[in-house]
Amino acid sequence: MICQLDFQSDIPIYEQICRQVKFAIGNGTLRAGDHVPSVRELAVQAAVNVNTVARAYRDLQAQGILVSIRGTGLAVSPEAPSRCRDDRLEMIRARLSTLLREAILSGIEMDEIRSLVDAEWSRLHKEVRASKAV
Amino acid sequence: MICQLDFQSDIPIYEQICRQVKFAIGNGTLRAGDHVPSVRELAVQAAVNVNTVARAYRDLQAQGILVSIRGTGLAVSPEAPSRCRDDRLEMIRARLSTLLREAILSGIEMDEIRSLVDAEWSRLHKEVRASKAV
Amino acid sequence: MICQLDFQSDIPIYEQICRQVKFAIGNGTLRAGDHVPSVRELAVQAAVNVNTVARAYRDLQAQGILVSIRGTGLAVSPEAPSRCRDDRLEMIRARLSTLLREAILSGIEMDEIRSLVDAEWSRLHKEVRASKAV
Amino acid sequence: MICQLDFQSDIPIYEQICRQVKFAIGNGTLRAGDHVPSVRELAVQAAVNVNTVARAYRDLQAQGILVSIRGTGLAVSPEAPSRCRDDRLEMIRARLSTLLREAILSGIEMDEIRSLVDAEWSRLHKEVRASKAV
DNA sequence: GTGGTCTAGACCACG
DNA sequence: GTGGTCTAGACCACC
After folding, report:
1. How far apart (Å, rounded) are the C-alpha atoms in residues B77 and D24?
2. Pairing relation of β-strands D66-69 and B73-76?
3. Burial C39-51 (b: 16+ CB within 10 A, else e)
4. Which of A2, A55, A59, D99 is least crowded, fewest Cβ atoms below 10 Å from its Cβ?
C-alpha cells in the first residue's frame, strides 16, 4: 500500500492516513483479511511520527474497519469493503452539498458546475490511470 | 448585509465572515465603493468578539477586497466584484477537484457523481430560494 | 492652490494638507502675505471634513508658517518661504539617510542607488510637469 | 536569529518582526527549510506578547515567506530567499520615489539631491563599516 | 512541544 | 464615531 501525504494540507496527517486506507479498501487494493503494514513500517515509509500512524489505526479500529489479530498485527475486517464504499459515498455527498450551496450563493450557474465536473473528472481519470501504470 | 455564522463548524469564524462578505460582493449585494458594517456593529449583530471581525476585515484588506478609508471605515474596492467571482469559481474548482479525485480513488463511478450533483443541486436550489423569499 | 490628497495613504490627511501647503510655499505658488483658502472652502474643495482642515491650519500656525489676520482669515507668514525650504530639505535629508542605511545593510551598491535616483527623478519630473500643464 | 525591536518607533512591532525575518532570509542568515524560532520562544526573547509574534508569522505565511509544518513549527519556504531580496529592492525604489516626488514639488533641484545622496552615502558607509568591525 | 482560534479589554490616531 | 495595536489568558488540535 502506498501512502501519499500532503504535509501542508489543512487535513490532519492521521486523517489523511485513515482516508488512504479506506481508499485502498474501497477500490480493492486491500481486501478483507489482508494485513496492513505495521505502525513502525508505515511510519518509516511515510516519514511520519509513529504516534500519528498509531492514532490513524486506532481510529480505524474504532470504526470497525481494522481488527487486531493477536500477535500478527492489524487486518482488514470482513465488513470493511462494503462499509468503506458507503462511507465514502456519504462523505462525498455531504461535501458536495456544502460545495454546491456556496456555488449557488455566489451566483454560479448549474451549467458552469456541470462542465466543471466533466472537465475535472476526465482530467483526473487520466492522471490516476497514469499513476497506476507506474 | 446579513451574516449567518455556524459556531459548530470547523471553519473558523473569521473565515466564515470573509466568505460571506465575498459572497455578498460576488452576487451584487455589496457593490464597489459600498461601506461594510463597522467592526463593532457587525460584532454585535453576529454576537462575536470585535477582534474576530477585525481579523476577517484585515484579511480582506490584505487580499485587496476591502480598502480602508481613514476614520470613516472600510469600503469595497473597485476590483473586488470581478475578483470575488473569479476567486469563488477557482475555489470551487479546486475543492471539486480534490473531491472527485477521492471519488475516483475509492472506486465511485461517473454516473453516481452526476446523479448526486443533479439531486443536490435541485434540492439546494429550492432551499435557497425559500430562504430568500423570507 | 490645488490640494491632491491620497485617502488610502498611511499619512494622515491633515499631515498631507500641511505638506501641500508647505510645498506651495516652498516652490513659490504661495508667497508671504498671501491668503490661504478658508477652512470651509478648502474642506469642500478637497472633499474633506472641516475639522481635518482646521487641524492642519492649526499645526501650521503652531509652526509659524501661517498667521491669523483678524477678520480676514489666515495668511502666509513672512518667514515661511525660507523656513519651508529649509524644513523640507532637512526632512528629505533625514529620510534619505534611513533609506540609504537600509540599502547598505541589504547589500545594495552605490551605483544601483545612483541610477535609481536618476531614473526616478527624470520619470517624476516629466509626470509633475505634465500635471502642471493641466 | 536575533531580533532588535524599537518600541518607540511608529512602525508596529509585528511589522518590525516581519522585516527582521525577511532581512535574515535576504542576507542568508536563514535559509530555505530552516525553522524559525517558535512563537513562544521569540516572544520571550523579544519581550513581546505571544500574539504579536503570531501575527507577524501569520502575515509571513500569507506572503508565502513561511510555511507551517503541522505540529513542528514554521519553516522558511523554498521561494522565500529570492523573493525577500527582490522585495527589499522594490521597497527601496518605492520609498525613493515618494521622497523624490516631494523634493520636486517643494522646489529642490537635482544637484542638491545628488550631493545629499553622495554625502549621506559616504557618511553611512563609514559608520556601517565601523559597526561591523566591532 | 507546536501553531491556531477566540475572547476581553486597554490605548491610540484619525475624522 | 472609525479602525489599528498590543496585551493577557483560555482552549483546541496536532505531532
Report:
1. 34
2. unpaired
3. beebbeebebeee
4. A2
Is the distance from CB of D100 to CB of C117 less than 8 angstroms?
Answer: yes
Q: Please give the CATH number for the structural domain made up of D13-79.
A: 1.10.10.10
In chain D, where are the structural domains located? 13-79, 81-133
Residues 6+ apart with CB under 8 A from D65: D21, D22, D25, D76, D77, D80, D83, D84
Alpha carbons B75 and B61: distance in angstroms, whole number:
10
Closest nt by CA–C1' to A12:
F14
pLDDT at position A98 over 70: yes
- The region that residue A4 occupies, defined by phi over 0 for left and psi between -120 and 50 for alpha, beta otherwise, is beta
Q: Which nucleotides of F are covered by protein (CB under 7 A)?
A: 1-9, 13-15
**C21, C60 in Cβ contact below 8 A?**
yes
Q: Tell me the residues of B at the C interface, defined by beta carbons under 8 Å apart.
A: 67-71
- CA dist., res. D96 & res. B44, Å (int): 44
Q: What is the three-class DSSP state of A75?
A: strand
Which residues does B110 contact at the CB level (< 8 Å), separation at least 6?
A121
- List, for residues D114-127, the tens digit of each pLDDT value: 999 999 999 988 88
Q: Which of A99, A106, A110 sits opposite B26 (nearest CB)?
A: A106
Q: How confident is the model at residue A102 (pLDDT cuts 50, 70, 90)?
A: confident
CA of D49, C1' of F12: distance in angstroms:
20
Answer for B54: CB within 7 Å of strand F. Answer: yes
**Distance, Å, B69 CA → E4 C1':** 30
The nucleotide lying nearest D50 (C-alpha to C1') is F7
Structure-model confidence comparison of residues A107 and D98, the more confident one: D98
Is strand E in 7 Å reach of the CB of D57?
A: yes
pLDDT of residue C1: 67
Distance from CA(D53) to C1'(F6), angstroms, rounded? 11
What pLDDT, in 10s, does the model give residues C36-59? 999 999 999 898 999 999 999 999
Strand F lies under 7 A from the Cβ of residue D48: yes
According to DSSP, the residues that pair with D1 across neighbouring strands are: none
**How far is residue A78's CA from residue A67's CA, in Å, rounded to a whole number?**
9
The continuous run of DSSP H or E covering C56 comes out as helix C50-62
Rounded to a whole number of angstroms, the distance from the CA of B9 to the nearest CA of chain C is 35
Nucleotide with minimal C1' distance from the CA of B16 is E5
Fold annotation for C13-80? Arc Repressor Mutant, subunit A (1.10.10)
* Cell representation of residue C59: 499645526
* CA angle D20–D21–D24, rounded 5-degree value: 85
Nearest residue, CA→C1' of F8 = D49
Q: Which nucleotides of E are covered by protein (CB under 7 A)?
A: 1-9, 13-15
Distance from CA of B35 to the nearest CA of C (A): 15
Distance from CA of D116 to the nearest CA of B (A): 34
* Rounded Cα–Cα distance for residues B103 and A23 (Å): 9
Residue carrying the nine cell digits 508671504: C32
